[in-house]
Amino acid sequence: MFIRRNTFYLRRTGLPFSTNVSPADKARAGSHKRWTRRQRKSAWTDGLSWEERLADAVTPLWRLSYEEQLELKQNSQQKILSELSGSLSADLRSDFTAPATAKPNFPVLSVLPSPVRDGYRNKSTFSVNRGVDGNPKTVGLYVGTGRQGNIVCVNADHLLNMPEKHKLVARCYQDFIRLSSLDPCLLFHTGGHWREVTVRTNAQGHTMAIVYFHPQMLTAEEVAVHKEELVEYFTRGPGSACRLDSLFFQESTMTRCTHEESPYQLLHGQPHIYEEVLGFKFRISADAFFQVNQAAAQVLYNTVRDLCVPVTEEGASQSKTRGTLLDVCCGTGAIGIIASPRVDRIIGIELVEQAVRDATHNAALNNVENCEFLPGKAEVVLPALMTQLSFGAGVLTAVVNPSRAGLHPRVVRALRKQAAIRRLVYVSCKPDGEAMRNFTELCCAPDQEKKLTGQAFSPTLAVPVDMFPHTPHCELLLLFER
Ligand SMILES: C[S@@+](CC[C@H](N)C(=O)[O-])C[C@H]1O[C@@H](n2cnc3c(N)ncnc32)[C@H](O)[C@@H]1O
């Protein structure tokens, strides 16, 4: 049975944060008194504090012990994989005969735990909006939704997955925007400027902060004054307690802008921070993808490497020829670079150009010479690559790690059609979503109508990895063979 934790800790940094409230802030707070009363009432009708409601939204498993969390995740992965087995049993393949309720007909290993359970996040994004007291210059995370019009921004100091450094930067940013003469940008069309702040840290504690700002009608000279104030605050003012290694600023008029759409402006410090995983060093740019839990990423990548290129007890690659590894949706190249000593050649494919530049840089940084990274959509690049390259009798393995949207059907078709691929590892952060469609397309009997030709794959092993303690999310590694 699950035990409800009876301690809910609220930690404060103890820093002398400013209590200055401008007359404009007071007026705003006054005009929101009724709103605040309503929000407060609704918060307490379910008997939960705002902090508990936020924890329930962001880390819904926080009341459970870690063992209970792992049990829950194991059961949910088991259920997803049973559904996969069930849907494959409807197919003509004779070795998939399990009914929908049966256990998966391939081994599912126990969830590999995260070596770090609390404060594991290396990247957090904090919003700016009305807090519990109605102050619109509150930095935290949301309870409620925009659609229901009941958003409340709650400080995230109590969240178990949040490291102290991220909380500190968020509180300093709140202090800074409360001192600023500019308004926060709550809704794009109603004006205001200060938006979210993203904090990235590495295992050594190096810290990058990225402040998002809506310029509205301000001139470049006017924006420059506020950028200077921001730098002053974080380098010589109270914010210097954060010891930022990098401070970026992005003027953005949309929810999300790429570097190409609106450049990340380096206001202070280094352009990158670096993270080390399994002895390899990775450069992290302001907008690059990197696994959010560095310690668990080591477990994940180690397992992915072993599934892609198993080694014998003597440490030699099992394959007669070491072959080629296709790293589809390779991000900044982590999987390919880490697997590179075990194969002859790595070919990575990635949509985001900056990530491809990072991947190329990371290969050179680690003196890895057998990797190449191709920019573009996998659905365009991979089919062309499959027709251009000749793999002869060489071993060809694929690892795919798409975002939640899963793989485009053209990618699945190209993988199936390439007879040289005998082994395929699918890394999914949401296996019950679009990835499930990919799994069935990889394993179903050939279907000319859907252009699913080539021999079907079979799932042969599943390994869940917990990258996100206190949340229901779990990374799933699924090995397919044929
Ligand atoms: C979950 S991340 C994995 C990155 C990498 N494997 C890692 O472990 O760091 C998914 C990556 O897929 C990329 N991506 C998304 N859609 C894509 C597409 N259609 N073609 C190629 N890459 C894509 C994203 O830019 C992102 O870098």
UniProtKB/TrEMBL annotation:
Supply the Gene3D superfamilies for this chain.
2.40.50.1070, Vaccinia Virus protein VP39
Instruction: Tell me which InterPro entries the record gives.
Output: SAM-dependent_MTases_sf, TRM2_met, TRM2B_chor, U5_MeTrfase_fam
Name the Enzyme Commission number(s) assigned to this protein. 2.1.1.35
Q: Which SUPFAM superfamilies match?
A: S-adenosyl-L-methionine-dependent methyltransferases (SSF53335)
* Active site (catalytic residues): C429 (nucleophile)
Q: Which organism is it from?
A: Xenoophorus captivus
Question: What keywords tag this UniProt record?
Answer: Methyltransferase, S-adenosyl-L-methionine, Transferase
Provide the reaction this enzyme catalyses. uridine(54) in tRNA + S-adenosyl-L-methionine = 5-methyluridine(54) in tRNA + S-adenosyl-L-homocysteine + H(+)
> This protein is called what?
tRNA (uracil(54)-C(5))-methyltransferase
Question: Where is S-adenosyl-L-methionine annotated to bind?
Answer: Q291, E350, N401
- The answer on whether this UniProt entry bears the keyword S-adenosyl-L-methionine reads yes
Any one Pfam family match given in the protein's UniProt record, by short name: tRNA_U5-meth_tr
Is Methyltransferase one of the keywords? yes
Provide the family line.
Belongs to the class I-like SAM-binding methyltransferase superfamily. RNA M5U methyltransferase family.
Q: Which CDD domains match?
A: AdoMet_MTases
